[in-house]
Amino acid sequence: MKASHIDPPPRPRGPWQWLYGTGHRLRYRWYRRRAQRLPKPVVSVGNLHWGGGGKTPLVAATAAWLRDADWKVAILSRGYKSRGEGVRVVSRGEGPLLGPMVAGDEPVLLAGQLPGVAVLVCPDRYHAGRQALYRLDVEPDVFLLDDGFSHLRLHRDLDVLTFPAADTFGGGRLAPSGRLREPLAAAARADAVVMSGVGVDAGAGRELATALRAFGFQGPGFSAPVRAETPRRVPEGDPVALDGRRVLLVSAVARPQSFADTARGLGAEIAGDLRFPDHHPYPDASLDEIRRALRQHDAELVLVTSKDRVKLQGRLELPLAELPIRAEPEAAFFEWLETRLAADR
Questions:
Q1: CATH number at residue 301
Q2: CB 297 within 8 Å of CB 291
Q3: Which residues have a Cβ under 8 Å from the Cβ of 65 and sit 6 or more positions away?
Q4: Nearest-CA neighbor of 169 among 147, 151, 202, 193?
Q5: Are residues 209 and 290 in the same domain?
Q6: Residues 241 and 309 in one domain
């Protein structure tokens, strides 16, 4: 996506849009003076869209950069659709301690991707942060919120807002008629915005920031291209070439078309494409559906996203491979982050 292709954001119209937007503004004002503070800096990465905004890859990239800059990082996640209760320590920095049913698929994925980074789950992120300070062997000196923009009960020192290149402004409308969970005017609360997605160029973030000025946003904009890594077999981890290979795609993500486009771009022949709802837990009936589809489509391989791999690994006796992706924020993003956090070091 080229920066010059960013159209001006549409302005929502209609009584429901006005009422919903007013409700969000009142909620923000109520929490603004009541938000609880942790004794360490808190950086939130979130979005305004219902799912698929590029949050988790950016969280992974940010956590890795902070870790490598000698920050002790703890990621705090709500554990969306997990069945556990209370504060759960998903990782102390040495890989997942819990499964996706108890902790949620994205926290388990982050725990596996980020050695040296702690991951905790609880709907109340303030409580999770307090628990992290005395339950972890190494006390964190920065907290990173995954999908934290709307979690107003916890004070954030920095709010980073992501926008997906494939659907930058979500049509400009709030649910149920639109794809936004907060109005575009909420971007005024953000300290920085990031354009994330496949094919994002270096100028897209700056163009995004300029487009959001009309909605009160005053901070910088950055780009974070998302790139596919080498596909690998599960569980062996061996690289696998997709070029010319008949594959059955299986995904439970917010933007399955992006997954399909990436696989096709790597030369895969898409024999079939099973799409389940985002964060689908894959009960036994779904596993049976995958088995039938592999036979019906005469595919050689089941290809899944990394988020789906954590829920399917060890549960299918089929040839399985994952297609990992990685966000690569521009250097200017990390320079900005370093400058903003320097005072808290």
A1: 3.40.50
A2: no
A3: 334, 337
A4: 193
A5: no
A6: yes
